């Protein structure tokens, strides 16, 4: 079966929750969150909600669970809190909720970051993706460049296919 045949039957629209993890950003200063909303809107993705939470494991977990329990959310996109600083706890928190991990997302993100953007600093990226409660979750760094790379090169090209695969056994 060709890739195009495999992707056939994917939904024509998906519903997304955008979560920005930051101790300092507001909706007015959240460039990455705003970019995600704008970019998804151009790709037949409806953003059903957008929230900002502090770099706190309980707040992050609460926000992700809020998304996985909603009937109008197929995909959760987090940005921020993915580095190696002590306050960067998004990855540990989100990954602990996964039923399944999609390691290819982080691997490809780091490869693209290395070759197209930041060189060896890509080793600091801990971007991950997985599935929790039949909801796809993509966790990206908070920088505008990283978000743009992840959205344009990885998420938008595959998000409809990912949702199709998650929902096909339901």
Essential attributes:
170 residues, alpha/beta, Molybdenum Cofactor Biosythetic Enzyme, Chain A, six-stranded mixed beta sheet, 6 strands, MoaB/Mog_dom, MoaB, MoaB/Mog-like_dom_sf, molybdenum cofactor biosynthesis
Compact description:
The chain is built from six helices and six strands.
What does this structure look like?
The chain has 170 residues and is an alpha/beta fold. It has one domain (11-155): Molybdenum Cofactor Biosythetic Enzyme, Chain A (3-Layer(aba) Sandwich). Helix content is 44%, strand content 21%. The protein has a six-stranded mixed beta sheet with strand order 2-1-3-6-5-4, with helices on both faces. Strand 5 (128-132) and strand 6 form a beta hairpin. The longest helix is centred in the C-terminal third of the chain and has 24 residues, at 144-167.
Q: What's the structural blueprint in terms of helices and strands?
A:
Layout: H1 3-7, E1 14-21, H2 31-41, E2 45-53, H3 57-68, E3 75-79, H4 90-95, E4 100-101, H5 103-118, E5 128-132, E6 135-140, H6 144-167
Helix pairs in contact: 2-6, 5-6
Family: Belongs to the MoaB/Mog family.
Organism: Halobacillus seohaensis
Keywords: Molybdenum cofactor biosynthesis
């Amino acid at each position: 079966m060709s890739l195009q045949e495999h992707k056939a039957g994917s939904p024509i629209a998906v519903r997304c929750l955008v979560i920005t993890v930051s101790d300092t950003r507001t909706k007015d200063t959240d460039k990455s969150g705003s970019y995600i909303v704008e970019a998804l809107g151009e790709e037949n993705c409806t953003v059903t909600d957008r929230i900002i939470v502090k770099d706190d494991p309980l707040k992050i977990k609460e926000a992700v669970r809020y998304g996985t329990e909603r009937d109008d959310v197929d995909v959760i996109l987090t940005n921020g809190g993915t580095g190696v600083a002590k306050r960067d706890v998004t990855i540990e928190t989100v990954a602990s909720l996964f039923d399944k991990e999609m390691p290819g997302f982080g691997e490809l993100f780091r490869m693209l970051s290395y070759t197209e953007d930041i060189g060896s600093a890509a080793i600091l990226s801990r971007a991950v993706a997985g599935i929790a409660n039949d909801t796809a979750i993509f966790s990206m760094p908070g920088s505008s460049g990283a978000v743009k790379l992840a959205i344009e090169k990885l998420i938008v090209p595959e998000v409809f296919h990912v949702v199709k695969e998650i929902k096909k056994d339901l």
